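Researcher: Next entry in the queue.
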Amino acid sequence: MSDRQRMIGYNRTVKLRWLDETVDLFLAGMSDADIYEALRERLKDELSVGSTAPRGSREKTITILMRTWVRVPPPLRELRKDGVQLLHGVRRSERLPLHWGMTMAVYPFWRVVADVTGRLFRLQGTAAPMQVQRRVKELLGEREAVARSARYVLRAFADWGVIVDSARKGEYSPSTCFPVTNPKVATWLLEAAVTSAPDGVTDFHSLVNGPCLFPFQIGRMAPEHLAASGRLEVVRHGLEETIVRVRKPLNGGRVGASISR
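Model: Structure for this entry, 261 residues:
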């Protein structure tokens, strides 16, 4: 697992409506500073109420919101640019795949928890938080920060409606799959999944059937579709195996790296 995969970063539960509001502010053309202040005003009665701590829960949550769609790491800005274009063409109720993909790309830890949760769903139909935390710690190390952040992600899954309480107390079940019928959104979501994969490499079959995308039902997809953005390359190994990986330009950076917002 790469160093980027081992970084956590996602240290608060981000509600879906907060992410929607952040995107709305960004789409309105507001500056980074104005978006930050608008989010501080929006969340002042929900997080760190009455607190003046410089790095309290509200500020940490806003950092995640900003990093996901506004202050995106340079290698992901072209992916974000395409995601924003797709946002213009979908209703608010259809944004889930775009929020999921961008969060996963910016915070690979989200993908790790999603992958573990999705595998448990396939294996036994339900997932207990302690099972998810234990498996994530096996992957990333026996750190309390790992277990705590896994809880934050699971709570976000619940808020986003992709997991629900199961009939067995203390366990989650997957919610009804979200159909991704727009082929451009499906292709973009799969690219986000490749970007968040260890070392930016995966095989195509594991990608389209990946447990990290357990909330979604994606239609038939050909490997060639993923090469359309120019940021991924598809390499065939015989008839059985097709590898998809993030394309590395000659200068050693990732395709799409940019110094602009």
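Model: Residues 108-124 form the longest helix (17 residues).
Researcher: Noted, moving on.
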